[in-house]
Design goal:
One of its GO terms (molecular function) is glycosyltransferase activity. It holds the Pfam family Pribosyltran. InterPro entries: PRTase-like, PRTase_dom, Pur/Pyrimidine_PRTase. This is Phosphoribosyltransferase family protein. Keywords: Glycosyltransferase, Transferase. By secondary structure, the protein is an alpha/beta fold. The protein has a single domain (about 45-175), classed as Rossmann fold (3-Layer(aba) Sandwich), CATH 3.40.50.2020. Helices cover about 35% and strands about 30% of the residues. The strands form two sheets. A seven-stranded mixed beta sheet has the order 5-6-4-3-7-8-9, sandwiched between helices. A two-stranded antiparallel ribbon has the order 1-2.
Length: about 180
């Protein structure tokens, strides 16, 4: 039976055409072995034990919930463009590039918390940096960003600030599929 990293590579595909390519990871969620093995693998990227996991909507929330359940801690969903948060003193939020805002309920992350952020893919790091800023404002301890794929090419400063750790790099996925597969 293939190991987790092999299963992640096999279940990954670049889709689209020459002008626009996008990462398709939907096969990961269909593989029960990936669902079973991914949470402990992401949690193992950090030695420190978090008291809470933050997961940005939507796939970060899915992965965050799996990692939080594995660790026996709670999950805080980081919402995107939440209209309620815009007008609520009970939420903390940040605007990020591309007309997006992120927020979560302030009371769900406490100053004594050790926070692990979990996501599927980190590209620019803008969302994770905004989440880290919110965690810092609350006074909680940022442990780092655990993600499946690191695509922070040439952004070592962002990787260091986030303490971003990943199971795979995007560069390593480029050659996974050398010829297009027929859709089906």
């Amino acid at each position: 039976m293939p190991d987790l990293l092999t299963r992640l590579r096999v279940g990954f595909h670049w889709r689209g055409g020459p002008d626009v390519a996008f990462a398709d990871i939907t096969e990961w969620w269909r593989d029960p072995v990936v669902l079973r093995d991914l949470p402990p693998a992401l949690a193992a990227l950090f030695e420190a034990a978090p008291t809470v996991v933050l997961g940005p909507a939507s796939r970060g929330t899915l992965l965050g919930a799996l990692v939080a359940a594995h660790l026996g801690v709670g999950l805080v969903e980081v919402r995107k463009n939440d209209r309620v948060a815009e007008h609520s003193p009970f939420h903390i939020g940040r605007d990020v590039p591309r007309q997006m805002s992120l927020s979560f309920r302030r009371a769900l992350v406490r100053p004594h918390d050790r926070v692990l952020c979990v996501d599927d893919w980190v590209e620019s790091g803008a969302q994770a940096l905004a989440i880290r800023d919110m965690v810092d404002e609350i006074g909680a301890e940022w442990l780092g960003l655990a993600c499946v794929v690191d695509d922070l090419q040439g952004r070592d400063d962002v990787r260091r600030r986030l303490d971003a750790r990943a199971l795979l790099s995007a560069e390593g996925l480029i050659d996974v599929e050398v010829s297009p597969r027929p859709e089906g």
